Amino acid sequence: MAARHTGGKATALFQAYRAATALIAPFAYRKVAAKLAAQGITEVRQRERLGHASQPRPDLAPGAPLIWFHGASVGESLAAITLINRLAERLPDARFLLTSGTATSAQMAEKRLPDRAIHQFAPLDATGPVSRFLAYWRPDAGIFVESELWPVTLAEARKAGTRLALVNARLSARSLDSWRKRAATAGFILSRFDLLLSQNEQMAQDLISLGADPARVLPGGNLKAGAAPLPVDQTALEPLRQAIEDRPVWIASSTHEGEEETVLKAHKTLLQRHPGLCLVLIPRHPERADEVSALIEAANLISARRSAGAALTPKTQVYLADTLGELGTFYALSPIVFLGGSFLPIGGHNPFEVASAGAAVITGPGTSNFAETFPPLIAAGGAIEVADAGELAEAVDTWLCDNDALAAARESAQSFNTEQARRLDGITDLLIERLRLEKARAQVDA
């Protein structure tokens, strides 16, 4: 693959960063390898962080592309898999490589990637690991998800002739402020991309203000709208349904430190009106389960903890769902879901997963990570925004008491999800066109 004109010059800051990361890469590797080892990742796979592949490069038909996707963790990787599935339909000869940085994303990818795709851990952002990675895999295109702006990786990939896109682009206010202080370097890095698809118009303007070429920047919506529904384990679901029987249930999902107290306060209020009500409480980070369990006990509520194998009985008021990989199964238990990360300035979590599961959404006001999603979803009637425990209890109570209102909200949420997912067709077309994913095949066919 021949290198192409890239535009923009490497700054002194970039050169200093590249030199520094080359020096500290061995030390950084020890840290990330130890973390992966603690999560059960083998030494062979740990070395993927140094650019050493653990699987063979796929055999490709003449002119067929190898398309590389990168997402930091589970959420970004799921968005990547959504696009991989769409591109796989359009490009039957293409093969796909997904990289990410966490053990949980690797485990998820193993379950959800199609047959024509491979997962590897991403190389550290240093010249040695990145060069080894690119020399081995030789990707025709690289598609990065959300805020993954790794300077060395992007510069080396572009230099190697890999055509690049940033999709679902989203930078926090803090990141934007930081990059604005390094405007020349930001412009150099963003100029590596052939296409930048932002989550909304404001983010598109922010990228342009950082030095991105306006001709390459377009608002593309949120890819998470098109993700496949979360998997439901029927063998796990049926015993839960039998244990709950005809009791009313609501879910508080992806809660963070400082939010469970509000949720439990709302639940205690609801129990006065609905004595048989069960709350399924799903902390965002299961390792906080001891802490959350203590909060439930302090609230004088009867609980059962899933990871401990405790039975969900008619007396259980709070079911602490502190396991990984079962979110879709829990969502199948109730059509009412409060999404955490929103009572605090965390940014909120993915409402599309809730909508595609057939549930209506309740959220707090802190949804900056989905600024393009929640206002129209709320306006459509598929979600309700609440500010505190009292409003949360009132929202849940309304849907528990009014089946017609709940059914309308669920239908609105699903319709909104379907409408947003249609945008993926346009995104797929843009990626194929701008990254020239069909060009090589067309030349061979000619």
CATH architecture of the largest domain: 3-Layer(aba) Sandwich
Share of helix, binned = 40-55%
Query: What is the name of the CATH class of the largest domain?
Result: Alpha Beta
| Biggest beta-sheet profile | 7 strands, parallel
Going by CATH, the homologous superfamily of the largest domain would be 3-Deoxy-D-manno-octulosonic-acid transferase, N-terminal domain
Kindly give the count of domains: 2
Secondary-structure-based class equals alpha/beta
Low-confidence stretches: 1-7, 440-446
Strand segment count: 14
Q: Tell me, what's the shape?
A: globular
Radius of gyration: 23 Å
Query: Beta-strand level of the residues, as a percent range?
Result: 5-15%
Which strand order do you get reading across the main beta sheet?
Answer: 3-2-1-4-5-6-7
What is the multimeric organization of the chains shown? single chain
What separation lies between the terminal Cα atoms? 20 Å
* Overall mean confidence score, pLDDT: 93
CATH topology assignment of the largest domain: Rossmann fold
The helix count comes to 19
Relevant terms:
446 residues; alpha/beta; Rossmann fold; 2 domains; seven-stranded parallel β-sheet; 14 strands; 46% helix; disordered C terminus
